[in-house]
Every structure is written in C-alpha cells, then in structure tokens.
Amino acid sequence: FDDTIKTLFRRLETMLRVNHYASIHYRARHHWLCFVPISSCIGLSGLLALVNAFNISSTARLGVGLSACAFASLAFIFGFLQTRFGWSSRADIHSSTQMELSQVAFRLENLRMYQNGKLLSASLSPESRAHAIRDLYRIDVYLQAMQQCTPDPPESINEAFHLMSSRLRLMFTRYPHVVKQRFAEYGEEPTGSSSPVPVDMHVDALDLLASEIEAYSLYPILLPDPSTVVSRSIDIFFSPRVQSVAPSYASSGYDDYDEEDVDYDSVYSD
What is the pLDDT of residues 160-178, one digit of tens each? Predict the structure, then answer.
C-alpha cells in the first residue's frame, strides 16, 4: 500500500508539471505565432485600405492596394496555421487536465493517513480499510486513463520530466552515498523498491528541473534540449560544486553547457 501511494505520487507530480508546462508552451506559441501576427496583419491591412481612400496618385494607390492585399493574405495564412496546429485548444486541454490532476492529488493526499502500517491497524474498521484500497485502485486507473486520453504534450517537456525520474534512480544505483547524504533532509530511509528515492526528494528535483526550463532564454516559445537541462539539474541538485564547472546559461540558451565537461566520478566520489 505504501509503495503504491509513493509510486502514484511520483506519477501524479510528473503529470502535473508536464501538463502545466505544455499548456504554457502551447499558449505562448498561439499568442506570438498566431494571434499577434494575425492581429498585426489585419490592422495594417485596414490602415492601408484607409490610406488608399485618400486622394493619392494612381501609382501610390496601386502600391498601397497591393500591400493591403498582401497583409490580408498573410492574415489568412496565419489563420490557416492556427487551425492546422491548434495550439490554443491544446493549451486549454492541458490546462483542464492540470486542474483535474490537482483534485486527484487532494484525494491521494488524504490516503497518506493510512501509510506506515496504519492501514492494518486494529482500530481501523474493515469497511474503512476496503474503502482506502478501493480509492487507491481508482486513482491508479484514473491516472492511466488520463495519460491515454490527454493529447501528447511537447516531446521535449515529456522527455525532460521522465528523464529526470530515470536519472534519479540511476543516481541511487551509481552513487548511493550521494543520495543517502540527503535522505536525512526528508525523513526517509532508502528502500528496496523500484523507486527508492523519497517522494519529497523526487518532487524537489522536479521543481528544480522546472526552474531550469523556465531559465531557458527562448522559453516558452522554444524548449531546451531535455538531456542538457536534466543533466544540469542533476548536477545542481546533488552537488553545488558542479555549478562552478557548468556556468549559468540562463541568458545564453544553454549553448555553453557541455555535459562532457563534468567529471561525474570525481564530483560524486566519497
């Protein structure tokens, strides 16, 4: 029961962040690549049509008329792209999904009262125990359904957050002493489960990754390379000394960071 709750929390926190940043990314693309160009083209086309109404030479009238038609055509093209990619509708879907997941998180949080063996407590009635198990199963099924029904998020965002989870497990396997040094901060001991990293540590790492994504100079219209941003987040999370090796590149679009520059064996040695 405890391992299932922790697994669902990790999955839920990951899904929340993926849908949150997918919504921001799609909304920014809709605004800057569709709404602003369409509005600008329509405005300029109307302005040129107004200028054409004044008493100007025939040559100038022809040029102004052609320019107005060109801007109107561009507005039509951008409108087609808006329909083709559907960034606005995608943003709305991911935003709605995030709100629903927040409600699921509240329900899952209520089940934490049964952790640490309390589910098997003699003071707990069989009916309450059955309801807790049933609710946990329903949340598991619901999250699986949400993943299947929600449109795919941007690949860079999805890959970054799932790669972060994989790197955390890899860190525990390759450098267990580094991870264990931080266990005291979260009040948990290492477990033998497939996801030994504490839930709170996992959430903190996802939050750090989110801040690194936001620091990307071209965010939210463009997204950073998943491998690069995850590597940097892992470096910062487990060893502040790496920050001097990999300088901040919030304003450079991450072009200056090279994972090969970091000697992991020396950084994470005892």
Answer: 999 999 998 888 888 777 6
